[in-house]
Amino acid sequence: MEKIRPKIEAFIFDLDGVLTDTAEFHFQSWKRLCEEEKIPFNREINEKLRGVSRKKSLEIILGDTKVSQEKFAEMMERKNTYYRESIKNISKRDLFPGAEKVLQEVKKGGFKLALGSSSKNARPVIEGLGIRDYFEVIADGNSVEKAKPAPDLFLYAAEKMGVSPEKCVVVEDAEAGIEAALKAGMYVVGIGPPERVRQSHVYFSETSELSVEKVLQSF
Questions:
Q1: What does the pLDDT average to over 147-169?
Q2: Closest CA to 25 of 52, 48, 46
Q3: Which domains are assigned to the chain?
Q4: 16, 94, 140, 173: which one is catalytic?
Q5: pTM
Q6: Using one digit for the tens of pLDDT, what is the confidence trace for 82-97?
């Protein structure tokens, strides 16, 4: 007998790669830091940083290179300073096509809505993009200790919305985020190429193809 799914009550959207693309800002910030420190860095390495925390990103970049805790913390903060400088001029024009439309659909459909981003700078980004008011809950890099692929961030968002995990839909573009959402027991919608998001329950190549109706049909 086919398992009956619970009714969807909430959506949790990742930020980078789903609603906007701050990846280039991150890339240039890490690149600047690595050039200063004479550490190898390129776009192939940068791709491994998709969806993971700043701390984990720096660990990946350093690899076997050892630095003191103080130096590690300073490098993270320096990268963050570069990144915050770069996003000062972010605006609604930086939203992906269809991004605000699907947020509007979620709200009109009576669903609860949360942001679930590993970034500690998610709030200034969504404020710059002009979409802050859509979200009832902001779950970001400051909300939990364990970042994606741990499920904590999404479970935190569900708890704050007062919705059980199995009634939540997560929209993600990164393998780490998809893994986190699956661990949380949520329904996962992937955005991106199949080779990256195939573990999702359903996926679309880009945000402009996404709609609440399509998600409900797939569910």
A1: 97
A2: 46
A3: 10-21+94-218 (3.40.50.1000), 23-86 (1.10.150.240)
A4: 16
A5: 0.85
A6: 999 999 989 999 999 9
